[in-house]
Design goal:
By secondary structure, the protein is of the alpha+beta class. It is about 30% helix and about 25% strand. The chain contains 4 helices and 6 strands; from the N terminus they run αββααββαββ. The longest helix is centred in the middle third of the chain and has 22 residues, at about 70-90.
């Protein structure tokens, strides 16, 4: 009998207990399911402030445990927040998402899947240093932190794929 793919394989608090060095244990919420990956995780979630907080904390804990530098982790968390925020603005609260974060040979991959293959993210002409703009800078930040991000169709809609580059530490 195959396990249900949406059944949590590892309870979120247990995973964070074993990997978190500086982060407090967080409580899993409804609509948040975790699947370990070889060098990271995939989280199936309904977008909410609590679940975004949980996936950000999970990303930090997982990447710290894998030796990723703190500034790269901060960039990953910002990219992740921007992409999840874009999905929520496009589809509303509690949109079902899949967030993947994993270490690659060149940095950290951040992929966010949402259910609409037709609505593509749009870059706005808002300057990043604009003192007046309240919105419109998110994809510009993603451009800076994960240049070359792209969108592709996926089995559940579309996937925004990013790579936050990490410079290898030389001895």
């Amino acid at each position: 009998m195959r396990p249900n793919p949406l059944t949590p394989l590892t309870p979120l608090p247990m995973l964070l207990d074993t990997t978190a060095v500086t982060q407090p244990v967080i409580q899993a919420t409804l609509g948040f399911y975790l699947r370990p990956r070889p060098h990271g995780f995939a989280a199936y979630l309904c977008a909410s402030p609590e679940n975004l907080c949980a996936v950000r904390q999970l990303a930090r804990a997982e990447l710290l445990a894998r030796g990723v530098e703190a500034d790269v982790i901060d960039s990953v968390q910002l990219v992740l927040s921007e992409l999840v925020g874009n999905s929520v603005r496009a589809y509303g609260d509690y949109v079902p998402l899949v967030v993947e974060v994993y270490v690659t040979s060149h940095g950290v991959a951040v992929n966010v899947h949402d259910p609409d293959s037709d609505a593509l993210p749009r870059r706005r002409a808002t300057p990043l240093d604009s003192a007046e703009a309240e919105t419109g800078r998110g994809l510009g930040l993603v451009d800076l932190l994960a240049p070359g991000w792209h969108v592709r169709k996926s089995t559940i809609g579309k996937q925004v794929c990013c790579q936050v580059t990490a410079v290898p530490v030389s001895d």
